[in-house]
Amino acid sequence: MANQLIRGSKGGGESPRTPVESPDSLQSTSYAKILLALGEGEFAGGLDGTNIFLDNTPIIGPDGQANFQGVKWEFRPGTPHQDYIKGMPAVENDITVGTELTESWVRSVTNTQLSAVRLRLSCPQLQEQKDDGDT
């Protein structure tokens, strides 16, 4: 019996489809109100934007230009008769539940001194990947 030669070659099919990524159309702006109180008694110095940092970046750079737009701050020296900071009339407390909601979720609030309750929901992913690779 003679040896038979086996040959193979690429099929004549189409080239694979390149997935298409949809443009980023998410528009989001986050705001934060922060009341930060450090120390006891009267403070010796003032506070300006060059010594307030967000992620190791001063709010006001050495050139006097704002590194973050829309940031406002007020300083209180710690004296007995100072004004309260307007816009912060209440104390808030976030309680992280960290639960994926797959069914009804009920939470009771028993504090009768509350004037409001805020509920924040988050979605970890707002995109869909189709079978052909498109997002």
Automatic annotation (TrEMBL):
Residues 1-26 are annotated as: Disordered. Residues 91-135 form the Tip attachment protein J HDII-ins2 domain. It comes from the Bacteria. PANTHER family: FELS-1 PROPHAGE HOST SPECIFICITY PROTEIN-RELATED, GIFSY-2 PROPHAGE HOST SPECIFICITY PROTEIN J, PHAGE LAMBDA. This is Host specificity protein J. Coiled coil: none annotated. Pfam families: FNIII-A_GpJ. InterPro entries: GpJ_HDII-ins2 (IPR055385), Viral_Tip_Attach_Protein (IPR053171).
